[in-house]
Amino acid sequence: MSKKIRVGVIYGGPSAERAISLITGKAICENLDKKKYDVIPLEMSKDKKFFLDNNYYKQLNAPGHKSTGKKIAALVPVKSNDLGKDKIDVVFLALHGTYGEDGKIQSILESLGVKYTGSGVLASALAMNKVFSSQIYFANGLPFPEFINFKKSGWKNDKAKILAEVKNKIGYPCVLKPVDQGSAVGVSIVKTEPELAKAILKTIKKFPWLMVQKFIKGREATCGVLEQSGSPFPLPPTEIIANAGEFYDYKSKYSKGGSTHICPANFEEHINEQIQTLAVQAHIALGCAGMSRTDIMVGDDGKLYVLETNTIPGMTPTSLFPEAAGKAGINFMKMLDVIIKAAI
Predict the structure, then answer these.
(1) Whole-model pTM?
(2) Of 137, 164, 208, 209, which residue is most buried, by most CB within 10 angstroms?
């Protein structure tokens, strides 16, 4: 019998998306093929320390393990050196948001010589930053909504100039969002200048770099990309209908019944093909690897606009990426295999 591949699944972390990361990590741990993999659950704390969830490790790798839906925490501190290639063959990254998708954890693993799933340091950092990724889209001829961006100091020094720029260049309604957050954290749609000023004052306290983007009236879509043998291929696109909010916000994403996913999307065939083409183009332009998921607006004017690319898509029970993979005939376990093979 061949030796099992030691897969360290890292989840948790310090970001605003920690709660979702914990669910994603557990879903990955439960669905990895235990005949092929020795699954090592590694939780990153809010203060960026690593812990082995020892009891969960024993449960996961016990013969005939079936999920109880619960895990008894027995967190054993792990030094970063213990994540080295002599202890772990590959890391499956399930960290969402800051520290997980922005290149930081990737740079740590690079320094340890450990293989890991998904995109590298540069692609992760570019995709996580909506200003930089939009510049990459622009350089590669991909359509995206017009925007302005500013930092806390800029807002403090010249509010009037920023509001005038929004009025003249972006218009209302518009979308306010942090430049470097995911899961629609801190995002709001505003309809008037006083409403925008109030939203900025509230949001900039927590997120010091913001962007105001043109509001695109239309339908929301997303499309995942997987890689096999270094070649990216698109999954079926998904239309997203938000039920819990005005748009596909945090509540719509993660609450039960918060959104309706139509996959494959019921746009006209040429629109679905365009969505898939843009997702692959965005993946390649940013230098992504292994997997990505790109969010796209299908405007009422018939035009498509790339919003952002996620390098570590959610793997929760309500997540879009595994759902689309399933529609392509790739079940959760097989999808995880494909992602790990791309990494190693």
Answers:
(1) 0.88
(2) 137
